[in-house]
Amino acid sequence: MTIDYNQLFIDGTWAAPSSADKIAVYSASTEELIGSVPAGQEADIDGAVAAARRAFDDPTGWAHWTAYERAVVLDRFADELLTRSPEFVQRISAQNGMPVRIGRKSEGLVPSMLTRYYADLIRRTPAEETRPSFITGSTLVRKEPIGVVGAIVPWNFPQSLTFFKLSPALAAGCTVVLKPSSQTVLDSMLIGEAAEAAGLPAGVLNIVPGSGRGAGMHLVNHPDVDKVAFTGSTDAGRTIAEACGRQLKQVTLELGGKSAGILLDDVDLAKAMPAMFSSTLLNQGQSCFISTRILAPRRRYAEVVDAFTMLARSLPIGDALDKSTAIGPLASAAQRDTVESYIAKGVAEGGRITTGGGRPKGLDRGWFVEPTIFADVTNDATIAREEIFGPVLAVIPYDDDADAVRIANDSDYGLGGTVWTSDVERGKDIARRVRTGSVGVNGYTMDHGAPFGGVKASGLGRELGPEGLAAYQQLKSIYVP
Ligand code: NAD
């Protein structure tokens, strides 16, 4: 049985789309058709933005409610999202191949967790503060919602990345038009169902799936959209930044990554390796922040290559819906083609595959690629410079700490990274010298209460934590001499 939607969530109701075109969704593990949703067009974006604008401009509406009033509705929204948690996980795993054991912890919990977090935060964050003036009197400094937000998200962690935006935007008093990725649309429709059940006022949240260049670009360019919050590829991010620049529209960009995992010479590999899977191969490498360049001290290079080879060989590969699966399929046939072409380039440029490199035997359906470890890679190789977004790691030797930091920073990207050491203080010192938005010492568990984002080609701005709320607020000063 397939899951089919024929309407879009616009203005608090399920509305007929402007065209009969549909987005078909296939299982990454079996390649079977599993559902469809309407392919939103420019006219649907226009309708959704108009609804969001009306809801925002309503003088007694969402933006003007007290923080407490919004928080009450957001708490109900969080409850409804949590009720749908197993369904989110199932749908996402079927669509993009994320193993359920990974999805349960992230995609199942993050939507409700972040919605509750920002409901709590907005209750505790005063919207106004009176400051003594430099000259006479005082100034009232107000935090106001930015306005209508266009939120555009990718397919790899579709719910987490959606709620990195929705939860703080709604808490701040913004209204939102969400455009999910065409590859993960079935889960996005559940958000509409949860919003409806929670009683979110009409127009506060609207969901329009559609193509990036069509619906997505139209949303970015829409004059009634005040801010764009985008997560996706660096190429699309540049196009969106240019469009926002022309319109002087605020934009947050969370883009690609090619992070380094630095193993210091004192690392206890036996202790470190169990945490390496989620730091390097999570979601079969379809994770923006993972460390896909492994920097190994030259004198321990062979030992590190062996450890990663063993790790890659130990990971159960299979259907994403199977609880024992650690490595599922890639999200699409196109993604598998891309990853396979990088593997071929890696070999052509002199890299040595120690394990993997092909498609796993016995899995004839589904877009699977074996976890692949490359040794003898230098940092100028294509597989060390470009984001592959697949289960492919490059192990690169370095001479000393300064050399490790130099190689880590020799990248167009600057999103994440890890440092592995027996001496946490030394690890923090190295982490301070790595030019990225976040670094983990002896592991990487994203802290949803701390700012997350990138430098260089990895993006602009930060999401999560109190800073993630501030990204949807603007400041106004009211002078009273
Ligand atoms: P993508 O850029 O192809 O698409 C992302 C979203 O943007 C989709 O909804 C797509 O339809 C839309 N889109 C594409 N072009 C657009 C345009 N010109 N105008 C408006 N919308 C447009 O990325 P993807 O393949 O879905 O996702 C993978 C990429 O996302 C990787 O590069 C990955 O590193 C990045 N990513 C970054 C983070 C982060 O937090 N930095 C997190 C996850 C993924």
UniProtKB/TrEMBL annotation:
Say if the entry is tagged with keyword Oxidoreductase: yes
Q: Which UniProt keywords apply?
A: Oxidoreductase
The annotated active site, in chain numbering, is 254
Q: Which PROSITE patterns match?
A: ALDEHYDE_DEHYDR_GLU (PS00687)
Question: What residue stretches are annotated with the Aldehyde dehydrogenase domain?
Answer: 14-478
Looking at the Swiss-Prot or TrEMBL record, what is one Pfam family this protein matches?
A: Aldedh
Tell me which InterPro entries the record gives: Ald_DH/histidinol_DH, Ald_DH_C, Ald_DH_CS_GLU, Ald_DH_N, Aldehyde_DH_dom
- Indicate yes or no for the key word Oxidoreductase: yes
Q: In Gene Ontology terms, what is one molecular function of this protein?
A: oxidoreductase activity, acting on the aldehyde or oxo group of donors, NAD or NADP as acceptor
Query: Domain of life, per the record?
Result: Bacteria
Q: Which family does it belong to?
A: Belongs to the aldehyde dehydrogenase family.
Identify the PANTHER family for this entry: ALDEHYDE DEHYDROGENASE (PTHR42804), ALDEHYDE DEHYDROGENASE-RELATED (PTHR42804:SF1)
This chain's protein is named: Acyl-CoA reductase-like NAD-dependent aldehyde dehydrogenase
Q: Which classification does the entry list for the species?
A: Bacteria, Bacillati, Actinomycetota, Actinomycetes, Mycobacteriales
